[in-house]
Amino acid sequence: MTTAERESAFVELLRARFGLAEDAEPPPEGFLLAAEHHFELARTLKQQHGYVQYVSVVASHWPEVPAKGKVEGDPEHYEVATLLRTVGPGSHVARWRVRIEMDGALDSLVPLFAGADWQEREQFDLVGVRFADHPDLRRLMMPEEWVGHPLRKDYAIETGHLPWR
Predict the structure, then answer these.
(1) CA angle 147, 131, 136 (to 5 degrees)
(2) How many CB atoms lie within 10 A of CB 138?
(3) CA dihedral 88, 56, 108, 124 (to 10 degrees)
(4) pTM of the entire predicted model
(5) What is the overall mean pLDDT for the chain?
(6) Domains assigned to the chain
(7) Closest CA to 49 of 109, 77, 90
(8) Bridge partners of 31?
(9) pLDDT per residue over 102-150, tens digit each?
(10) Nearest to 30, CA basis, from 82, 74, 78
(11) Is the pLDDT of residue 157 over 90?
């Protein structure tokens, strides 16, 4: 299967089973998918479409945007992007994003991909995203007693932290 055929099959899967609008074009950062479909999409891609390599998970923190005049505000939230890949000739990367609220959690992909373990822990540690049913969700890079998540946009960069500053 060619890369173009895999991309087309991925888009069709999203339309048929995961609520993607018919006229939606693939954005470079990946489709925005409802969080409740995250695990099922990953399982379907792995078991039925050959996406066997877990490439990455990347989380972003989005602070609250207050409403201004006629423009509606946006509450504080996380956005989590996931990338899976097929291997071999015609390899293709499937990418999608989900939005979760600050007190929410995203289903862990560790039951499907062992490679998700430390990557999800990294996003938990540095950004603060929680992954439901993760087998060992604890800090990976920062000391256990560290307060906060240094890659959040509301983390004060000038804060001193011994022994570094």
Answers:
(1) 75
(2) 9
(3) 170
(4) 0.87
(5) 89
(6) 3-107 (3.30.460.80)
(7) 90
(8) 96
(9) 999 999 999 999 999 999 999 999 999 999 999 999 999 998 888 889 9
(10) 82
(11) no
Contacts of residue 25, Cβ cutoff 8 Å, sequence gap at least 6: none
How far apart CA 39 and CA 54 sit, in angstroms, is 13
Beta bridge partners of 65: 74
**Considering all CA atoms of the chain, what is the largest pairwise distance in Å, rounded to the nearest integer?**
54
Using H for helix, E for strand and C for coil, what is the string for the chain?
CCHHHHHHHHHHHHHHHCCCCCCCCCCCCCEEECHHHHHHHHHHHHHHHCCCEEEEEEEEEECCECCECCECCECCEEEEEEEEECCCCCCCEEEEEEEEECCCEEECCCCCCCCHHHHHHHHHHHCCCEEECCCCCCCCCCCCCCCCCCCCCCCCCCCCCCCCC
Q: Is the pLDDT of residue 165 over 70?
A: no
Q: Do strands 31-33 and 93-101 pair parallel, antiparallel, or not at all (unpaired)?
A: parallel
Residue 6 has pLDDT above 90, yes or no: no
